[in-house]
């Protein structure tokens, strides 16, 4: 999956202009497992760019920033947690290609490895988002990854949302309408320095409610995440 994600990023980087996009404003974003896979692809690419003779079709320098939402970045530390949540160890290790692969697919572990310090220095700006009420992947996962990145000299920001669960930020809150704090935080990064866009953001009407509150509360209680 990491290779597939990297190929997808490569396609965007190499074709965005032909679709009317701005090649100077490419952002990488992932949520939950997507945040993990995207981070793996990003770190792997940085390592490839430091290797002699490595063939690459895109560069981490082409990305303005990476947004990681509710992600897990250290699979070694999350095995027991997932097992307790019902993603049993045997199944998880099968997905991860065996226990011996956990460190390789743990961006936090790779970032802490001094052998890859130069590669890590190539990483773009990283912004991590996490709800403190997330019991699928605890917010400590993002805190620990942010600490590792910061220690390696990467420009990183961590934004925590008090009491928000694994799905609140990107499902329940947008459906609720009104102010969307996560969206506002992302737009602030994307529109930074663009006075015209920021002015439009300031007068944009609030999003309308799409689902009654009782349904959102019911979904929150029933969701396995």
Automatic annotation (TrEMBL):
<dbReference type="InterPro" id="IPR029058">
    <property type="entry name" value="AB_hydrolase_fold"/>
</dbReference>
<protein>
    <recommendedName>
        <fullName>protein-S-isoprenylcysteine alpha-carbonyl methylesterase</fullName>
        <ecNumber>3.1.1.n2</ecNumber>
    </recommendedName>
</protein>
<feature type="domain" description="BD-FAE-like">
    <location>
        <begin position="2"/>
        <end position="149"/>
    </location>
</feature>
<dbReference type="GO" id="GO:0000139">
    <property type="term" value="C:Golgi membrane"/>
</dbReference>
<dbReference type="GO" id="GO:0016787">
    <property type="term" value="F:hydrolase activity"/>
</dbReference>
<dbReference type="Pfam" id="PF20434">
    <property type="entry name" value="BD-FAE"/>
</dbReference>
<comment type="similarity">
    <text>Belongs to the AB hydrolase superfamily. Isoprenylcysteine methylesterase family.</text>
</comment>
<keyword id="KW-0378">Hydrolase</keyword>
<dbReference type="InterPro" id="IPR049492">
    <property type="entry name" value="BD-FAE-like_dom"/>
</dbReference>
<dbReference type="InterPro" id="IPR050300">
    <property type="entry name" value="GDXG_lipolytic_enzyme"/>
</dbReference>
């Amino acid at each position: 999956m990491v290779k597939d994600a990297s190929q997808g990023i490569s396609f965007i980087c190499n074709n965005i202009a032909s679709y009317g996009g701005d090649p100077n404003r490419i952002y990488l974003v992932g949520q939950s497992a997507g945040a993990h896979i995207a981070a793996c692809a990003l770190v792997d690419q940085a390592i490839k760019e430091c290797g002699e003779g490595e063939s690459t079709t895109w560069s981490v320098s082409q990305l303005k920033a990476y947004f990681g939402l509710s992600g897990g970045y250290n699979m070694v530390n999350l095995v027991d947690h997932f097992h307790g949540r019902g993603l049993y160890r045997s199944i998880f290790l099968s997905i991860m290609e065996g226990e011996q692969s956990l460190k390789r697919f743990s961006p936090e572990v790779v970032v802490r490895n001094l052998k890859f310090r130069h590669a890590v220095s190539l990483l773009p700006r990283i912004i991590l988002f996490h709800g403190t009420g997330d019991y699928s992947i605890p917010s400590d996962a993002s805190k620990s990854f942010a600490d590792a990145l910061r220690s390696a000299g990467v420009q990183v920001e961590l934004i925590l949302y008090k009491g928000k669960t694994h799905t609140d930020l990107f499902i329940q809150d947008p459906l609720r309408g009104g102010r969307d704090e996560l969206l506002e935080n992302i737009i602030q990064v994307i529109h930074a320095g663009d006075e015209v866009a920021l002015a439009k953001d300031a007068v944009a009407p609030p999003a309308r409610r799409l689902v009654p509150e009782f349904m959102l509360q019911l979904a929150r209680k029933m969701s396995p995440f």
